[in-house]
Amino acid sequence: MLCCMPGVAFVPALLVSWSSAAFIISYVIAVLAGHVEPLVPYISDTGTKPPESGVFGFMINISALLAAITMYIRYLLIEKQNESSLFVSSACNMFTLCVGLMGCTGMGIVATFQELAVPSVHDIGALVAFGSGVVYITLQSIISYRSCPRWNTYFVCHIRMAISIISCISFIPMIVFASKISMTKIDWTPGEKDYTYHFTSAICEWTVAFGFIFFFLTFIRDFQRFSLRISTEIHED
């Protein structure tokens, strides 16, 4: 069904579907295995212990790759649109792409280094992934407004900016409350020390993560008008 989409719209559609499945499947396995409490664990908590750790690591690495491909196509799309109506500088477009790719690298680190195995590296990867992701979608929202009304409707721009604002607002308490937690564990229960910090931070983390998913969902319509062609030239000596 994804392959029947016009243009390259199947790429962000696959990214959204795959990433949503990665979060949900690892969560369900972790809860059923009794490794985490069902009430709002950290996303990383649902991919720390086997067997869910293998599923989480594999699927999140694929999500990082799909996100990188989506961001690169988005970069090419903006460059192509700029040829007929210059609305953003190439340097700004490239900077936005680089920020997005940093976020993808952070996702790869999170997927590879489990929370309890190498917590410091895992936390750095999560900070890079979420921080770069928030900056990326904010920049893309600004670029979208600059491309109106020719390449985007104001309705889509408003949605993207709303998602960016909600993600930015959620990102700050996510980091603040996470920094107040004095222990590294995944089996949290209500009433214990630092549970309130964990609960609040986890809610914000899920909000930011699904903010990214819904943001990339808005790319599908844009990508329907864009196709990639590979040309091969043969030169004779």
UniProtKB/TrEMBL annotation:
The chain crosses the membrane at residues 7-33, 53-73, 85-112, 124-143, 155-177, 197-220. It comes from the Eukaryota. Pfam families: Frag1. It is a multi-pass membrane protein. It is found in: Endomembrane system. Keywords: Membrane, Transmembrane, Transmembrane helix. Residues 8-225 form the CWH43-like N-terminal domain. GO terms for cellular component: endomembrane system; lysosome. GO terms for biological process: regulation of autophagy. InterPro entries: CWH43_N (IPR019402), DRAM/TMEM150_Autophagy_Mod (IPR050911). Its main location: membrane. Belongs to the DRAM/TMEM150 family. This is DRAM1 protein.
